[in-house]
Design a protein that fits this description.
By secondary structure, the chain is an alpha+beta fold. The protein folds into five domains: 123 residues, Hypothetical Protein Ta0175, Chain: A, domain 2; 206 residues, Dna-directed Rna Polymerase Ii 140kd Polypeptide, Chain: B, Domain 6; 115 residues, OB fold (Dihydrolipoamide Acetyltransferase, E2P), CATH 2.40.50.150; 48 residues, DCoH-like, CATH 3.90.1800; 52 residues, Alpha-Beta Complex (DCoH-like), CATH 3.90.1800. The chain has twelve helices and 35 strands.
């Protein structure tokens, strides 16, 4: 007896599980059961699973009977003429949607010529195996599945002309590529999603070779002169917002230049760009800390007595300033009102971002890496015909990842660039490697894409032939300017007196146990003293009872909470976090006694 489950719930037994599954499929194809029902028979468990719930990923396949597809040439003709619809094919049981479970019972052929009597389904097109994103990878059938997934993710992260009305928009943080290009090697999907109107990368000349160790691991070496001519140049936009909020009691914020007697007044230099209305003017060059919108807020919590005495001194400075570590030019200033009638100001700051060391780039095949070096054009290697690559890619990135499609795109891109045409790299259906090689040979180059190259610094010929071609590269949104962080002294937390956490708060850089071990191993143990006293405090401790005492500096006497006045005290150096622990233990009625012994 086979167990039967419906949407994960046990509903009963059946004497022939396989037969039941076949019966459900047959009835579904006849239209007696809704087309969204899927059935799966597990032989190991002798269990039938029937699913009809929402949220399952399902995909269409052509039904095959006795080695022949049910979709005929007559049906295709009717579809082309508009006499028949897709829904008609689904209703007639010619095409059915399978979910991940039912696919386990299916034997699917890629092409009609592969069909045998055992096959149950036929792919509509092999490219339907992939989703929208994965179909944007040229020659994706020549890569491992993890790299196809990573490649699909990389395409999403590429900086592009993400919308045509970017001048009217105030997106949270957005980047814009200045000179986007259509890829030479495309797939069918590019046409369907209208990729040409908003492309997200540029075609570059790429050489696969090491370069003085600066492209080790996944790093790439880039031609500095190419970047100066505009290669991968982008702009980074960030909006800043301020609103005149209203509070109970008739008080409200004021957008204005703050007076010197408000709480939290900054330096005069930080307000230098503000105009009379307290708002910055367009095209001002700003850096971290510069105020964009001056704002003053009333005190939040007022008692009935305070309401009479609260003057301008009680007001707080709550201006919007450029984030720490960022810079840019004010592009847009928008002044409007909210639906509640409050004044609302938005300022958009633009920062020019040419490629720099540490910026992240990727091909469409999951081969991601950061710039390891920017080399002037005169020092870059060059081919016999004088072509200088824009990117030098590390050959060691290929064998372990097995992204053969990366190499194929370089070859196809070379053919497209030389022949002045776009190359079709659609998975399973694109141009064949053999044909591309043949065409490259006709164009006067070696069919394997290798060329003689010369050292740009010495002029000597490289002993090895170098694989050179054209490729579509993406600049990703992860730029080093958004990650770079360092600090000497700065803000500390009120409770622990330790440096604040995080780049946005000018936070400290944490030194952990392993970093400490490195310092000691290098003999730089004294550096640890400096690193570990970020919250150093000198505390008076009573020698008798070992509890934290109070020291009266003016009378030069120690007062112990247990022993009373003029107790013998000593000063102990400790971290403030430890002193805080002692206080917390005392609050729990635990006696934290410090045993004081003489040094040495």
């Amino acid at each position: 007896m086979s167990d039967v489950f419906l949407n994960g719930k046990f509903i009963g037994y059946h004497e022939n599980g396989r037969g039941l599954a076949e019966l459900v499929k047959e009835r579904r194809r006849k239209g007696e059961i809704p087309y969204y029902v899927n059935v799966y028979y597990s032989e190991e468990e002798d269990t039938v699973y029937i699913f009809s719930n929402h949220g399952r990923v399902r995909r269409p396949l052509i039904v095959v009977k006795d080695g022949k597809p049910l979709l005929t040439d007559e049906m295709l003709e009717k579809l082309e003429k508009g006499e028949m619809k897709w829904s008609d094919l689904v209703r007639q049981g010619v095409i059915e949607y399978l979910d991940a479970n039912e696919e386990e019972n299916a034997y699917v052929a890629l092409y009609p010529e592969d069909l045998t009597k055992e096959h149950t389904h036929l792919e509509i097109s092999p490219m339907v195996i992939f989703g929208t994103q994965a179909n944007m990878l040229p020659f994706a059938q020549h890569a491992l599945s993890p790299k196809v997934l990573i490649g699909a993710k990389m395409i999403k992260q590429g900086i592009a002309l993400y919308t045509k009305n970017f001048t009217q928009r105030m997106d949270t943080d957005s980047s814009l590529l200045h000179y986007p290009q259509k890829p030479i090697v495309q797939t069918l999907m590019y046409k369907y999603i209208n990729y040409d109107s908003c492309p997200a990368g540029q075609n570059v000349v790429i050489a696969v070779m090491p370069f003085q160790g600066y492209n080790m691991d996944d790093a790439i070496v880039m031609n500095k002169s190419s970047t100066e001519r505009g290669l991968f140049r982008s702009s980074y936009y960030r909006p800043y917002v301020a609103e005149e909020l209203r509070y109970p009691g008739g008080q409200k914020d004021r957008i204005t230049i703050p007076d010197k007697d408000v709480v939290g007044y900054r330096t005069e230099e930080e307000y230098r760009y503000l105009e009379e209305d307290g708002i910055i003017y367009p095209s001002a060059e700003v850096k971290g800390g510069d105020v964009l919108i001056g704002k003053v807020s009333p005190p939040r919590f007022l008692t009935s007595l305070d309401e009479f005495t609260a003057g301008i001194e009680a007001n707080k400075e709550t201006s919007e300033a450029v984030r720490f570590g960022e810079k840019g030019v004010v592009e847009t200033v928008l002044i409007t009102e909210t639906e509640d009638g409050n004044k609302y100001v938005k300022v958009k700051v633009r920062d020019l971002r040419p490629p720099e060391l540490g910026d992240k780039f990727a091909s469409r095949h999951g081969q991601k890496g950061v710039i390891g070096m920017l080399v002037p054009q005169e020092d870059m290697p060059f081919t016999a015909s004088g072509v200088i690559p824009d990117i030098i890619f590390n050959p060691h990135s290929i064998p372990s990842r097995m992204t053969i499609n990366h190499l194929l795109e370089i070859l196809a891109g070379k053919v497209g660039a030389l022949a002045g045409r776009y190359v079709d790299g659609t998975p399973f259906a694109g141009e064949k490697e053999f044909d591309l090689r043949k065409e490259l040979l006709k164009l006067g180059f070696r069919d394997d894409g290798l060329e003689t190259m010369y050292n740009g610094m010495t002029g000597e010929e490289f002993k090895a032939r170098i694989f050179v071609g054209n490729m579509y590269y993406l600049k990703l949104k992860y730029m080093v300017a958004n990650k770079l962080h360092a600090r000497s002294r700065g803000p500390v937390q009120l409770l622990t007196r330790q440096p604040t956490e995080g780049r946005s708060k000018e936070g400290g850089l944490r030194l952990g146990e392993m970093e400490k071990d490195c310092f000691i191993a290098h003999g730089a143990a004294l550096a640890l003293k400096e690193r570990f006293d970020s919250d150093k405090v000198v505390v008076p401790v009573c020698k008798n009872c070992g509890i934290v005492a109070v020291y009266n500096r003016y009378r030069d006497i120690g007062i112990c909470p247990i022993c009373g006045e003029e107790a013998p005290i000593t000063f102990v150096e400790m971290s403030y976090a430890f002193k805080l622990l002692l206080d917390e233990l005392k609050s729990l009625c635990i006696y934290p006694k410090l045993i004081i012994t003489p040094k040495g």
